[in-house]
Amino acid sequence: MESAIKTIVTTYLGSSRGKENLSGSAFQKLVKKNLSGVMEDTNCSSAVKEMQRGLDENQDGKVSFQEYLTLIGYVANSISQQKCGSNADASQ
Ligand SMILES: [Ca+2]
């Protein structure tokens, strides 16, 4: 689990190149490269842009680390719901 958390942090820092925010294009690349297995539409630029708008709490057009964590939480939540769903199916 520790390595997973470190990966979350280093992935962000690698994409932002040490800056405090990810630009829109850096965010696009990060999502395409890292989340295509757990999210739909990661290859669709307009869908990723839409998602970025949803995450952008301070509306500065960039993705802060906090906003990125919101996305990670959202993805984790959807994975856990899928797992719960499949367990429920197996018990029926
Ligand atoms: Ca922002």
Automatic annotation (TrEMBL):
Superkingdom per UniProt: Eukaryota
PROSITE patterns tied to this protein: EF_HAND_1, EF_HAND_2
Domain EF-hand: 55-78
One of the record's GO molecular function terms: calcium ion binding
GO cellular component, one term: extracellular space
UniProt KW keywords: Calcium, Metal-binding
InterPro entries: EF-hand-dom_pair (IPR011992), EF_Hand_1_Ca_BS (IPR018247), EF_hand_dom (IPR002048)
Protein name stated in the entry: Protein S100-A13
Species this chain originates from: Xyrichtys novacula
